[in-house]
Amino acid sequence: MAQRVTYRRRNPCITGHTNISADNTRSNKIKVVKTPGGVLRAQHVKKSGSRPKCGDTGVPLQGVSSLRPREYAQVSKTHKTVSRAYGGSKSANAVKERIVRAFLIEEQKIVKRVLKEQAEKEKKASKSKK
């Protein structure tokens, strides 16, 4: 008969002690490990972190490690950001879009100003002719 494995935490929810399985409690997953003494022990498996997503597009960010929220406090800054503006929060395409949009808005303002000046010159020219 197979050796029994018991949970090591206080959460007794039975989820089947074969390898990691979909179960009632996601935080109570275990993996059965054989120790050097030949004893089977339940090893609790931590939940895997989801990849951080871009705030604008929702695309997973490249170059940022996927960890559990609390683990980000222990890792260095290079694991959490990318060396560019909006490095750890926006994707490269989103930043590119923002730059292009800002540039086009500035261009539009300049065009409006030029057209306004031309209209004023035409008004002055028409008044001086009369």
UniProtKB/TrEMBL annotation:
<dbReference type="InterPro" id="IPR008195">
    <property type="entry name" value="Ribosomal_eL34"/>
</dbReference>
<keyword id="KW-0689">Ribosomal protein</keyword>
<dbReference type="Pfam" id="PF01199">
    <property type="entry name" value="Ribosomal_L34e"/>
</dbReference>
<comment type="similarity">
    <text>Belongs to the eukaryotic ribosomal protein eL34 family.</text>
</comment>
<keyword id="KW-0687">Ribonucleoprotein</keyword>
<dbReference type="InterPro" id="IPR038562">
    <property type="entry name" value="Ribosomal_eL34_C_sf"/>
</dbReference>
<feature type="region of interest" description="Disordered">
    <location>
        <begin position="41"/>
        <end position="63"/>
    </location>
</feature>
<dbReference type="GO" id="GO:0006412">
    <property type="term" value="P:translation"/>
</dbReference>
<dbReference type="GO" id="GO:0005840">
    <property type="term" value="C:ribosome"/>
</dbReference>
<dbReference type="InterPro" id="IPR018065">
    <property type="entry name" value="Ribosomal_eL34_CS"/>
</dbReference>
<protein>
    <recommendedName>
        <fullName>60S ribosomal protein L34</fullName>
    </recommendedName>
</protein>
<dbReference type="GO" id="GO:1990904">
    <property type="term" value="C:ribonucleoprotein complex"/>
</dbReference>
<dbReference type="GO" id="GO:0003735">
    <property type="term" value="F:structural constituent of ribosome"/>
</dbReference>
